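Re: your question about Si:dkeyp-30e7.2

S., sorry for the slow reply, the queue was backed up all week. Below is exactly what I fed in.
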Amino acid sequence: DVWKGVLHHVTGEHEWGFGRCFHAPLAENPDKELIPHGSAAHVALSRIVLNQRWLKDIEKLLTFRTTAELESFQNHILMYAGKRFAFSFGVYEARTLLAALDYNHHNHRPVHVNIKGQVSHKRVYNKKSQRYSVHTVKETKDYGYIPELQTRILEKRLSSAGGLPKRRSIQADDPRALGPLSGISPPPTAELVQTQQRRGQDLCDT
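Result:
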């Protein structure tokens, strides 16, 4: 209904039947040209707005969301916790939190402007597509959250009763507490020992 309201909006009609436009009140502008209702232009627009194929797709387009920012954040995590390295759960959790702090603090930093007052750009060559692309250069990261983070770590250490334990107990949300995720219940250890012993005996007999 909101989409079909375009046909009323372009004619200067912002309330009709059981519907209305959802924009703020518009300033009066006598020089603004409106499309007369029933004119050739209005009929042509109606064919586009009321196209059945388009009406089926518009609902999907209204709820469309891009995953570009999520993919960018996932790539940012790899800077702190690369896939080629193995980390314990606690270390991986800490590195992911550091990646989130870095990403959130620097995500919306301003673009870099050179001495001529122009926005700086940088060209990048893509080996896969074999072509150059250009992107806007942002200001250098300042990592302004690091001093506060260091202060909180020091305060936590000074207020603690003792140092870090030599052995850290596994937390309830630690994946290691789940054990091997084989999908089948493990048999008793004694049963496995007997099975292996029988196999070894069978090999010796042969």
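Residues 34 and 82 are 58 Å apart (CA to CA). Strands lie at 15-16, 19-20, 121-126, 131-136.

Happy to talk it through on Thursday.
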